[in-house]
Amino acid sequence: MKIRSRSFRHHARSLTATLLFLASSGVAWADTYDPGTNKLTIRTVIIGGASFSNMVVTIGSIVSAPSGTAPNAGEDAYDTASHHLTIPQVTVLGGNTYYNVVVTVANLVSSGTLSGSDSFDGTQLTIPYVQVGSNVYFHVVITVGSVVSHGSGMPQNPRDVFDPSTHHLSIASVLYGGITYTNLVIIPGTIKSVGGLSPQVTFSASSLSFSCLTYCTPRTVALINAGATILIISEITTSGKIGNYSLFSESNNCPGSLGAGESCAIAVKYMGPAQVAGTGDLIVTDNGAGSPQMLPLHGYIY
């Protein structure tokens, strides 16, 4: 059931006494909520281990809003079992910034990007990445044989998955006629083209968090090519600023390419001002599935 925007505004006002108010303080990144449309724009949300960027949802109800002086570490996280969305920090347009809020999601407006959603033109379905067993194929174009089930709501899988035993293709999200549909299951028709096998990029950690006195020593994470083909790395950088001041920097020993199973090390340094929560991402651009890959970064100097 869709909850009207005035319901969230009422909840937001009632939570003012328990949530920290920041009137345009130095928060580098936050979700944004528009009370006029009841739409929440999510910078990054983790669903089933995958990161979706720029997702837009409508809010159902507020589950909890514990007070605190800084956001909890981590990106937004969606629990597919409870349907709870945990938000480290959210800014109400024209109003306050709230920390560590848990809400339910009423409707998915846009699934954002997981290296792009599938797209359907009425005849052909274009799939950026699909998993078949232990392999991941990229840029697959097929026709649709039949629809097994229509899904809805938040994506339940990080990418499309094909089950050879049932011939079912589970689709995370697909754009058709300007509308995003999620969690569909179809039986493919004809395979028109397959781009090839894609390298698989993983990090040795799900995020990097710094909590330091005066100075933060660099932390190292491994970049791993878990796929069966060569990973070509074009850029490694970091994001996250307060004003024009960069919060993170990186150095690495990564070559221009990594063979199957090979890895390299990336050292990340946090340089934020004292007593200000900083967030950003380690960003790796390459030819792997889901490029650019982003590792959440969080820092706080006491």
How does the SSE layout of this entry go?
Elements: H1 5-14, E1 31-34, E2 39-47, E3 50-64, E4 76-79, E5 84-92, E6 97-110, E7 118-120, E8 124-132, E9 135-149, E10 160-163, E11 168-176, E12 179-197, E13 201-203, E14 208-212, E15 219-225, E16 231-239, E17 241-242, E18 245-246, E19 248-252, E20 257-258, E21 263-270, E22 278-286, E23 293-301
Parallel strand pairs: 1-5, 2-4, 7-11, 8-10, 14-23
Antiparallel strand pairs: 1-2, 2-3, 3-6, 4-5, 5-6, 7-8, 8-9, 9-12, 10-11, 11-12, 13-15, 15-21, 16-20, 16-22, 17-18, 19-21, 22-23
Description:
The protein is mainly β. It has three domains: 5-110, no CATH class; 118-197, no CATH class; 201-301, Sandwich (Immunoglobulin-like), CATH 2.60.40. The protein is 3% helix and 58% strand. It contains one helix and 23 strands. The chain has one helix spanning 5-14, and strands at residues 31-34, 39-47, 50-64, 76-79, 84-92, 97-110, 118-120, 124-132, 135-149, 160-163, 168-176, 179-197, 201-203, 208-212, 219-225, 231-239, 241-242, 245-246, 248-252, 257-258, 263-270, 278-286, 293-301. Strands 1, 2, 3, 4, 5 and 6 form a six-stranded mixed β-sheet that branches. Strands 7, 8, 9, 10, 11 and 12 form a six-stranded mixed β-sheet that branches. Strand 10 and strand 11 (168-176) form a beta hairpin. It is flat. It starts with a helix and ends with a strand. The relative contact order is 0.14. Residues 1-28 have low confidence and may be disordered.
